[in-house]
Description:
Elements: H1 14-29, E1 42-47, H2 53-64, E2 68-71, H3 86-93, E3 99-104, H4 109-114, E4 121-126, H5 132-146, E5 151-156, H6 163-172, E6 177-182, H7 191-199, E7 203-207, E8 219-222, H8 233-239, E9 258-260, H9 281-286, H10 288-299
Parallel strand pairs: 1-2, 1-3, 3-4, 5-6, 5-8, 6-7, 8-9
Helix pairs in contact: 1-5, 1-10, 2-10, 5-6, 5-10
Amino acid sequence: MRHDHLLTAKQLSRADIETVLDRAAAFDDDPTAAGERHADELLALCFFEPSTRTKMSFETAAKRLGGDVVDMGSVESSSVKKGESLADTVRVVEGYADGVVLRHPKQGAAKMASEHVDVPVVNAGDGAGHHPSQTLLDLYTIREHAGLDDISIGIMGDLKYGRTVHSLAHALTNFDVRQHFVSPESLRLPRSVRYDLHEAGAQVREHEDLDAVLPNLDVLYVTRIQRERFPDEDEYEEVAGEYSITPETLDAAKDDLAVMHPLPRVDEIAAAVDETDNATYFEQAHNGVPVRMALLDLLLDDD
Ligand code: NCD
């Protein structure tokens, strides 16, 4: 993979994706596979929005590679509170670390940051934009369960504001995957993403109901309604709780359907689904470590 930064899933070719996933599989088998390559390397974690999995799995990955992290901490306790610009923050941070993982509420923030620094920047979520490292672990999980060719995936929930969806949909255009988008009309994929998928020749269908399409799916990727991105709470209330997966919902699905979710979930997947063989979301979250190890190994590798 020859990239300086990971900013969107659009920049990833099929070969790039396979390189990361194959290396992740090697780390899954042997977490010491990188040897001493990253001893003493430091990764800066700059999270301007809440995070559990993304931040902790990057930290775990850096440490398992023999490196360490420096963490900006919460926005409340940083100089952002004093009015510091993002450009200034990342310029300072590049003097401390060998790479920057950035999550920010503004779409395009990671790209802007990457223009101000020489160390690799990983976009760990930019508003309703992209979340490409999540996509890599999603693809890893899909590959393990269903393979990445000649499959049907349902992507359901908040397709408008869900950045994991935008990145996943772009990345899937590299593979022979039929993409079925299920959402209320008001939460359809943004026009720009639909345009890109069309241009890439993707096999895309949009639905308001899951019922018609569920029996054909190999993977169902469920997402949270992104409450924090709604301009108005009433609009959120109109769609909240619209979709919920229960064990009964899955009666109509293939036995080996993989139910995925980037997490955190609110009420889109009932806790009783956790006991079914279809529940794949916790395994998906665990895959964040080997996949982010592989990503850091490739991005931080100077050779
Ligand atoms: C996602 C995100 O931050 O976009 N979380 C994650 O990184 N696993 C999904 C979400 O918050 O709904």
